[in-house]
Each structure stands twice: as structure tokens, then as C-alpha cells.
Amino acid sequence: MADFTLSDFTLKEIKTLKYVRPEIEKGYTDHSLHINLSSREIEIKPIDKMVKDKFIGGKGYDLWFMWNAVTGKTKWNDPENAICIASGPLGGTPGYPGGGKSIVTTISPLTGIPIDSNVGGYFGPYAKFSGFDVLELTGKSDTEMVVLIDGIDSKIKIYEVSGLTDDSYELSMKLTDYFDKDKPVNISVVSTGSAAKNTELGCLNFTWFDAKRKRVRYKQAGRGGIGTVFAHKNIKAVVARWGSVSMKNNNPADPEAMKAVTKLHAGEINTLDPKQNRMALVGTTHLVPIMNDHDCLPVNNFRYGNHPESHNIGEAVYEHIFDKGFDGCWRGCAVACAHGVKDFVPFTGPYKGQKVFVDGPEYETVAGCGSNLGIFDPFFILEMNFYCDTYGLDTISIGTGIAFVMECFEMGLITTKHTGGMDLSFGNRLNSLELLHQMARGEGFGMIVGKGIRNMKAIFARDFGADASIMQDIGMESKGLEFSEYMTKESLAQQGGYGMALKGPQHDEAWLIFLDMVHNFMPTFENKAEALHWFPMFRTWFGLCGLCKLPWNDIVPEDNRQNPEPAKVMKHVGWYADFFSSVTGRKVSPDDLIPMSEAVYNFQRLFNLKMGYGKREHDSLPYRSVGPVTMDEYNSRMERYDKDLTENYKVDITGMEVAEKVAILRKHREARYETLKDAVYKRRGWTGNGIPTLETVKRLGIDFPDVIELLKLNGVV
Amino acid sequence: MITVDDKQMEWHQGMTIKELLDELEHVQFCAVVRLNGKLVSSPAFETTRIPDSAVIYLLPLIAGG
Ligand code: SF4
User: Which among A314, A539, A541, B26 could bridge A289 via Cys, Cβ 3.0 to 4.6 Å?
Assistant: First the structure.
């Protein structure tokens, strides 16, 4: 980070609530904290046992409180829209790998439905230790606010703030310094940045203080524009302050059992990560060469899956660029994959020529802001990463969004006349960065790009006369959310993983490309549907408990491959069940974890329905994610597509023109995706229209009166 | 000799990764190996020759981000 001159800022305390800190019992405080930014009301409420039993914690709690805060007509920028942040009953366990996540939800500006983001940093655990399983922020302030949750002094404070920078790095550092100068490690700050105010792609930055490097570090709740909602509410920052962290904080039911399973999981990672993915050294950048080799690395707006220059942006390069040292985004996480780069010098923007620290990049940023833009320069990616964080932007939506713009530009759908004179061909580094700076300044073509792909498609067609149908095919969004960075053309299961993901195409629900495409492990629709049930449910469970999913299946036991279903890593699932039992005292077996998630998963689908979405038509995909849109794409993998037509669809292609082959393949592949939807909906207990049936909601115990009414309104009785 | 997942194995001139995997059990989900520290992915298994004294780790099933 640059040496900032501490410009003056003023915090004026306008409301304080002194409270008696609810004790934590078996991972729960059983209390929620509600802050209304309009009325400045602060309320602490007990959490109902029913909510605890059915919604578990984390994302489950977030969704429950949001459901009760909004109506079906609520838009993202209405005051009643809530931002909820929760850890979970297991969150805040030091030393348990991935044991300290926060889950954030809100109604997304991009999708109009709940978005959820699972993020590192210390905020969620600190807020829980301060007495609250979940924080709900509603209302909209007319002046900029800072909220402090001070678990050490048992006070909630609301401040009016003036003169405080929007720049997320500088802001977090100043507030950390302000609220606990002597022990900065006691502070975690949630904030966004200047571009969140001007775009719909705003992210939240969650900090922790890196005591060794003596600097504030970051992780992002990136997806879906949560930062935009935060900025719109005029929240400058939410700060949690907490003191000592130990295995006792969660007051576990069986401390010895919790210690034992923590030791087992952490010990295994310490032994095996160096032999497996080496995430403690390279983070997730090992995925770059692997995806490239398997034709899954998005190149030039997901047109292609590999590029000869990709070795420039993979683990072999970043291993030498990352600053060495412990990089856990939670205390003692043995995976320690949250790397950063020190003394990076940007070549554009307000930090041009200054030394800064960059938190990242992870695989998604490398692929989104690198290969997908046709740029294979590791330092350019660092600069995109740095400015996205500083300005409060989601690197995934930025990468996928700019890739779309570049393809439109190269196709002549938009020209320099529309871009303010900028050449936005693939590979243009300076102008990609200029778009970010424009978003931060609130000017120029960057403001249009910052509206996201779905809005861009409408604007380009309406105002620039661009062809809407080709943009529909190449604009990589579904439900309004930009795709994360995997090529899915050859994996039907992953097309389903993206298209049927509740919040939109983010891979955290299901990542099935290798099982499906490389290993052909799920040849039938029913096999794929089974995977699209089990994996989303199990992955949901991490978000309920306040955990990170990486330690589950990125480092696996040595004998895992002898298991008939190695992708499930059942030994770890067993450990997670033990971990849950030891903390909460609720004895569970591995088989119990899926039903725990199922209730929340279906509730979220119903939430989409409540907001006017959540049906079959909303699970549609752009054809670029399913097959070759252009003849160029077809020709680049002709052998593969010809084989698909002749062997799988029994089409005689003798003498056929490429354009005709593209059209026939499309018909078959689109039909295949519809068949997959049928199979998945059936497996999940949904109607053919993608709505949970009455029987399903009753079985899961989420048959609340308003749910039954909602189903009735949608013809499900 | 070569070392595969910390175990010693016989080596022969011209040995490829595919040949090595053919000798091992439970490798149907192996898509990537680390050969002397470098990643080698399945499309290159048939053509990648293993040098003598190589140290190889079979990577777990690729699980995405
Ligand atoms: S595995 Fe990585 S991302 Fe997950 S908690 Fe640990 S350091 Fe953070």
C-alpha cells in the first residue's frame, strides 16, 4: 500500500447503543442485530428456535431476515432492501481450515433476486463474537455513515462521516487505525469504493489486519453488486471490533472433539498441500494451465478454451510474484491461499508510479481480466485486480463484461463513436484500465459498461442499433449475472451448474466440468441430475456454517481416489459432520448434511419466485456457453463438433456447409439442455416449470403460510 | 527408479505418463500430474516422457475454484 498522507476526516457519533453482549453457546449467540439507516434505529432481537433449526445460520439466516424485510416488488435501491451479513455456527474457529467466512446477501441490482457471496476476512466471526449471529442493514441514510459493532466495549455506534476517502484501501486503513490504533488486528472493516456508486458491479471488501506485514488485507464479496447497494444506502463502512480469538470463543459443546477434528483436517492439509495443488504457494493460479490444457480457460469472451501464451499468467509466473508469507484469510487456515503482491507499481490511474500492495489475483481474476480479454500479461492483471479492489468492483463481472464489449467492438456492433474514441479490441490493456477509471470517476463509456451485460445488450440495441440476437448469444450472462470464468461448451453438467444456479452463473454451487467432460463420470441425464442435486446442496452447507469450501476438495486424503465417488471426498464430509456435532452439540452424520442445506436451497429458489423470477424460463443460457456461436468457433474445433453431430446426434454431415452444421448442432445442444432441466427439476422435487412442489416444501418444513400462498399464486397446489 | 506419490517405482527408457498410469490402480480420475514440479495435464499424458529419477505426484480430481 502506498504511504498515504492522512487527510482529515470527521466521525460524528449520532447514535450509541450500549448492550449486554449475548454469550455464545455452542456456536450461536441466538441474537440478531438490525440497523435501519433511515431512522437510525438499532435493535437487538432474539432468534427464534424455528429459524435456528431450519435455517442453520450463515446464508440461511441472511435469507430468512431478507425474506421478511422485502416484498415481491422491492427493488435493489428501495430502502427496505436489506444487506445481511452472517458467519455461521462453526465460523470463527481458529485453526480449522477455512473456518471463518462471512456470507452476505442482498437483492441484486443485476438480477433483482437475492445474491449471496461467501467472503473471507474477519468481519463475520468478530460480529458473532460481539454478540450477533446475523447483521441486517436496511433503510437509506441521507448522509454518509459508518457503523461500529464494538464487542469489546459492548456498544453499537452510528457515525456521520465527512472527508473520508472512497478509496477502499485507504479508507480501511484509516478506520482500522482510528478504531484501534494499538491493536489493529482487533478490527475488520467492510467497505466498497468509488465505482460502486457509479455502476451496478460494486463489491464489498472485507478486511483483516496482517500483523506480520503490518497492513490491511482484503477479500471480496464480489458477485452481484452488493457494494452498489451498500453505497446506495450511503454506508461508508461497517466496522467490527473484537479482542482475543481462541477455540473457546464459540463455546463448543465438545471442545475436545472439536480440537481433535481441527487437528486432523489442518494436519492433513499441512502434509498434503505441498504434494498436491500447492495452494499455500500459488493460491488458485494452478488452475490456469490446467484449464488451458483442457480447453476450459475462457479466451476472447469464451470463444475459445486455450491460448499458447497462457503460461505467462499461470502458477509458474505468480509463484515468483507473490509475496512470501502466511496468507490465511482466516486465523490459522492451513490452506493459506489468499496471496498478494507487494511493491507493485501501477502504470495508470491515481496510483500511477506509486508502490502498492495487491491482494490477489485468484484464478477468476486472472482468467476474467486476462485471457478472456485476450491479454496474457501478469502485471496488467495485477493492475486490474488492484483498481477493481480500490474502486470496489467485482473482477469477475468486470472481466466478463469487458470481454463482451470487446467482442461487440470487433464484430462492429459498437464503434469508437460509441466508446468515446476508445479502441476496445481484444488485447487492449490501456483502454481496459481506462474503463475502470471512468467507472470510478463516473464518466464516459465506462458508465455503460458498469451497468452489466444485460443492460448493455439493451442499450447497444436501443441506442446504437446493434443486432440484439447476436448479443443474446455472446453476452455471457444468465439471470442478469455475468458468468464466472470457466468454459462450459463441452460439459452439459456444468451448463446446468451455471444455468440452474440460484443466484446466476457462479461456480460455487456446482463445478462438474472435469467429472463430466474429462472423466465422463455422469453419462446419463439422471446421473447429471443427481450430481446437480448433491453438489449444490453440499456446497450450500458451507455457507450455512460460516466455512470456506476450498479445504473440502482442493486438498484430499491420499487414499481418496480409492473411493468409488472421489469427487465427494467423503472422508472430509465425515470430518465436517464431526465438526458440526462437536460445536453445536447437534449430533449429525454425513447423510444429515444434505437435508440441512435442502431447506435453505429450496427457500432461496422460492425467494426468486417471490421476486418475480425462479421459473424455468429464468434458467436459460446464452448459446456461447452451450456451443459454437460463430463459424470461426466451429472451425476451430471442427473435429470435435463434427464428431458430436455424427456420433451423438446421428447426423449425416457429408457435403454440409459449416453454417448448416452450426445451426443443426445448436438445435440438438439446446434441446439437450432442456432435457437436463427436466431431469434436474425432477430430482430436486420441483415442477416442470422449476418451482418446488407443495410436497417438497412440506417435506423440508418450509411450508410457511406465505410460501403456500406464493405457490398458489404460481399455480402450484 | 522414479518416485510416485512418495513410493518408489521401476522406470524404463521412454516411459510415458500414460504408461505409468496404466500400471497403477484407482487412477480413472487423474487428469493432472506434477512431474518434477511441473504440471502435466491429461491431453499430454501419452506424449510426455518421464525422465529417470523423476518425482511425480498425481493431483486430486480437479475441483474448480
Ligand atoms: S482456504 Fe484460502 S480462501 Fe479459504 S479460508 Fe483458507 S485462506 Fe481463505
Answer: A314
